[in-house]
Design a protein that fits this description.
The complex is a heterodimer of chains A (about 270) and B (about 325).
Chain A lengths: L5 H22 L32 H36 L4 H15 L2 H12 L3 H28 L2 H8 L4 H37 L11 H8 L8 H28 L1 H7 L1
Chain B lengths: L1 H28 L4 H6 L5 H11 L5 H13 L13 H36 L4 H15 L2 H15 L14 H35 L2 H8 L4 H12 L1 H25 L5 H10 L3 H29 L8
The chains are: A mainly alpha (about 270), B mainly alpha (about 325).
């Protein structure tokens, strides 16, 4: 670990920029994003509006900043749901390998995988109506089997190792072993997976808010900005280009970071790759 | 082999039953009476009752579930509350947009990904490999609907080679295909990026096997060994991803249809949601899930054909 991998640095820098933008938007944005000033509509980029304004007179840069906040928050909480529910399930499945519990958990996972996440989102919004909360739920549910599977896979190979056997002989129960010995050793795997799911979550949120199934107006989101820009594409293409670019750079940053982390945390994999 | 297929069939039907129960229960939870909704605020109780009976809403839950499933099996998906026509008709029309779109994208994505992944694996560690890997990294990060908008911007707005959206119908096969081309490219490219990466790493793993050294030792050139032995053995993970991608493509088609104003299943389902036409939502989601489960089953069988070692795991 003498030198940090280049993708990791590049990814971390990209992600930090968006994170900083999102955090800054809580205390300051160049303009108010919920105020429609028709006099300012469709302004080109200027000193006052660095990236110009949309058809409702809202400052594009401010909207991108608040959009980053929405996007990051939804994806982060969705990853949280996946980790908090999925990891214990995966650990329990691995600890009771081959039991009815293991079988039930894995079948349940298969079932969720059979629903494309968008279909889950559609079902949820059909019942509860569109909102950021339901978007989080829809993306989060899909994260559960992913983390359960990663945790189970990682844990299964650890359960065969001698030091786990030693812990059992020492009288530790399966729950304590899972928490004290298995979990810390699969943390690397989980961190890498979390980065991947985080970037997938951002893409999913963008898609959901594009079709109007996520956060509702007036709160801006990258996906909604894109659907608003669609009718303006003939005259003001930049309105459609910029939010998409934000999504791409954010996701690219997270993916590069995930790749870099994996290379750094898993030397075994590095050797296979060379 | 027969045992394997039977085992898979059993789990296939179990998944379908549980999935249908989940969808049915979710739709049941929704408050509001569709009959009252359809007739508006001023309808009198007798009319609402009559319509409820007409729509089959007056039975018990179990009865309604069984009627729904029995209907689905026979191709009767119920009657749309808003269109007042059988859902099966609505679905059939739109399926001929969504399905060709998904299939076309799948073909495009595979056709792009195979040579690209092969090229990267064959040139591992060289400039071509780094270039391709960088490109695929970018491809994965691009949301397909935004890519679709960029395609519209370039090819419809600026170059005017294509129309920006809409679908002329299959009476004009060439025009219909042309109108599906941009959407399927938009859908396919991000998927191709993923597939190319999987292809590359599967090939690289295979190239490290002993039998590849043997193939080279018996006098095959690098190229021959790659094409004749590595490619086939690397197909297993690639097949998995192609199978998974089909479900992504179906779901992705739902979104892309909105970019290109295509009258497909996606538009149908979103109309169903906004108009509270729950029969449509219920039946179309079930259909999508059915498609995904069946494709997964087909991929499992395809594995077993491609790799006899996997048959024993049933």
């Amino acid at each position: 670990m003498s030198r940090l991998p280049v993708p990791l640095i590049l990814g971390a820098v990209l992600s930090s920029v968006f994170l900083a933008m999102a955090l800054l938007s809580f205390v300051w944005t160049p303009h108010n994003v919920e105020q429609l000033v028709i006099a300012n509509r469709l302004q080109p980029a200027s000193a006052d509006f660095l990236l110009g304004t949309d058809q409702f007179g809202r400052d594009l840069l401010s909207m991108l900043m608040v959009g980053a906040r929405v996007s990051l928050a939804v994806a982060l909480v969705a990853v949280g749901i996946g980790v908090v529910i999925g990891v214990p399930l995966g650990l329990a499945a691995a600890a009771t390998r081959g039991s009815l519990l293991d079988e039930l958990i894995m079948r349940g996972n298969d079932l969720i995988f059979a629903f494309p996440s968008l279909v889950i989102a559609i079902l949820i919004t059909a019942v509860f109506g569109p909102s950021a909360f339901n978007a989080i739920l829809a993306i989060g549910i899909f994260n559960i089997p992913v983390f359960a599977r990663v945790a189970r896979g990682g844990a299964l190979s650890l359960w065969t190792l001698d030091y786990i056997l030693a812990a059992r002989v020492a009288g530790k129960g399966k729950t304590r072993i899972s928490a004290e010995h298995i979990l810390p050793n699969i943390a690397n795997l989980l961190i890498v997976q979390a980065t991947i799911q985080f970037s997938l979550g951002i893409l999913a949120e963008a898609a959901l808010s594009y079709v109007g199934l996520s956060v509702q107006p007036p709160t801006p989101s990258w996906g909604r900005m894109l659907s608003d820009a669609q009718t303006m594409i003939y005259t003001h293409p930049m309105l459609a280009v910029l939010p998409g670019l934000a999504i791409v750079l954010m996701v690219l940053g997270l993916n590069l970071m995930g790749d870099g982390l994996r290379d750094m945390l898993d030397p075994r994999l590095r050797r296979v790759r060379q | 082999m027969l045992r394997f297929i039977l085992g898979r069939l059993l789990s296939l039907s179990l998944s379908l039953i549980v999935a249908s129960l989940v969808i049915f229960t979710v739709i049941e939870v929704i408050p509001g009476d569709p009959a009252a909704f359809m007739l508006g605020l001023n309808a009198d109780e007798a009319t609402v009752q009559a319509l409820r009976a007409d729509l089959g809403l007056d039975g018990s839950r179990a009865e309604r579930y069984l009627t729904w499933i029995a209907g689905m099996v026979q191709g009767d998906f119920g009657t749309s509350y808003t269109y007042r026509v059988p859902v099966a008709e609505l679905v059939a029309d739109r399926l001929w947009v969504s399905l060709p779109l998904a299939v076309l994208s799948l073909i495009l994505s595979t056709v792009i990904a195979f040579p690209v992944g092969l090229l990267a694996a064959a040139n591992r560690g060289r400039a071509a490999d780094y270039g391709i890997m960088g490109g695929t990294q970018l491809g994965i990060a691009i949301p397909n609907f935004w890519f679709g908008m960029l395609l519209v911007l370039v090819f419809a707005v600026n170059l005017r080679w294509f129309s920006a959206g809409g679908f002329p119908g299959w009476e004009e096969p060439l025009l219909a295909l042309k109108s599906l081309l941009l959407p399927s490219v938009a859908l396919a490219l991000p998927q191709a990026a993923i597939l190319a990466r999987v292809m590359r790493s599967a090939l690289i793993e295979t190239l490290a096997q002993d039998y590849m050294r043997t193939a080279r030792a018996k006098g095959l050139s690098r190229r021959q060994a790659l094409l004749r032995h590595a490619l086939r053995n690397a197909l297993i993970p690639v097949l998995t991803i192609i199978g998974l991608q089909f479900s992504f493509l179906l779901a992705g088609a739902i979104i892309i249809e909105n970019v290109f104003f295509l009258p497909g299943l996606g538009r149908l389902i979103f109309q169903g949601i906004t108009q509270r036409d729950l029969v449509v939502v219920e039946s179309v989601t079930m259909l999508l899930v059915f498609a995904v489960i069946v494709v997964t089953f087909a991929v499992d069988i395809a594995y077993a054909v491609a790799d006899p070692r996997l048959r024993r795991r049933a």
